[in-house]
Design goal:
Chains A, B: One of its GO terms (biological process) is regulation of cell shape. 2 copies of one chain form a homodimer. By secondary structure, chain A is an alpha/beta fold. Chain A is 46% helix and 16% strand. Chain A is built from 11 helices and 10 strands. In chain A, the strands form 2 sheets. In chain A, strands 4-3-1-2-9-10 form a 6-stranded parallel β-sheet, with helices on both faces. A 4-stranded parallel β-sheet of chain A has the order 6-5-7-8, with helices on both faces. In chain A, helix 3 links the parallel strand 3 and strand 4. The first copy, chain A, is globular and about 50 Å long. The first copy, chain A, starts with 5 loop residues before the first strand and ends in a 6-residue tail after the last strand.
Chain lengths: 267, 267
Amino acid sequence: MDNRPIGIFDSGVGGLTVAKQVMKVLKNENIVYFGDTARLPYGSKSKETVTRFSKQIVRFLLTKNVKAIIIACNTASANSLEELRKTFDVPIFGVVVPGASEAVKATKNKKVGIIGTLGTVRTGEYKKLICEADSSIQVFSKACPLFVPLVEEGWTNTEITKLTAKEYLGELLKEGIDSLVLGCTHYPLLKRCIGDIVGENVKLVDPAKETAITVKNFLIDNNMINDGKEDKNHIFYVSDYTEQFDVLCEKALKKVYKPQVIDIESY
Amino acid sequence: MDNRPIGIFDSGVGGLTVAKQVMKVLKNENIVYFGDTARLPYGSKSKETVTRFSKQIVRFLLTKNVKAIIIACNTASANSLEELRKTFDVPIFGVVVPGASEAVKATKNKKVGIIGTLGTVRTGEYKKLICEADSSIQVFSKACPLFVPLVEEGWTNTEITKLTAKEYLGELLKEGIDSLVLGCTHYPLLKRCIGDIVGENVKLVDPAKETAITVKNFLIDNNMINDGKEDKNHIFYVSDYTEQFDVLCEKALKKVYKPQVIDIESY
């Protein structure tokens, strides 16, 4: 048994959708969440910068005595997981590996679509992992930079969002995909709108759930599960606080956790 | 005469539209430009964080021996100008003061609209300055968070952008404004689309031109103009480099300047 908390980090608040799945699948675990709200978003930034930021965050989380770390952010998972694992002596999980594995299971016609930020799509990580698992699968990727600001504006199902989704998803639909990976933590909040555009024959894959299951299995296999005998205590940190945190926290977790602000640049 | 360069900084690449006006109005001056591309955008972030970032940037620009500094970013101008002027012993200019002064001149019916980021609108700086200059003017503000990502996606005049502009500008038009301040460096790139929505009876005010004129007058009054005897040399720095810089540099300055990447967190 290991009652230390699990660290979860994200470029901002989108990772709260991953925290939600972890809370659901790993009911006894405590979470230390960090959102890099001062420097978000990561999706448009270079591999070098995303990796530098991620290293600072892992160093911060290690000061909170975490037993494992989940990179909730797809961009950081795709760009920095390997380098973080090389650098730090703590189990680290990204969302891309579980997401890719779920996509392989989901597709019947062997045509998978991936949507994400520019930074995620640029790495080709989802495509690489899916093709390694099954080389007969064709993968079609599309960066959708406007989806995150649309969610943050609260326009999750407006005419403008529908038109944007049509514009982004049109090419993928023409390719005949039967599964679509929501490769960015904000996208599950657009599930209804995206679902309406792609139709019910295209399965939407949310990597968050599979990630939580992967971490659960790891903790069980390594005898590191929290025994649940102590009171539960989730703690939230951000690098910048505005009310937007509360709004998205309420939306994702149905509860507002007040975050502490820390200076991530000093780590 | 003072042949030292002028420092210009912005949260990213939008400030290149201000650099363009400075190059036009102050033909003999050299520019040292810094774009905080690793931590952009500033528009959604708190006053404290924007001011902390701005201080790091001023410290960096001072190492480049600048004779004056222009804050090209509306969000940083609105949130941090006062604090920067208190902290540093170098002439510092924002875009909000000149923009407000231009709006006062532009309006005939005394009804002015302001559009900008959440962070700019939240400060109420434009409104305060305009009302101080003429208390009979009514000011109506609207944050337009989607305009920046729409420009960065290259969708400057699509159906989606038109619908978004209609949504954001509808309220201001109902108030009967006759002038509209483009209170964010990206917005001049949407001039055509915004102009179509508001109609030709609403004057669009771009603070960049007036800012360049303000700085020119200051340099003349203080005998600090560059004598133009040395070769011109504009230098560009960013905190993160991706090809997006080249794209927007080409769009704003009709030329691609290759930027140097620096670690702004160490200043």
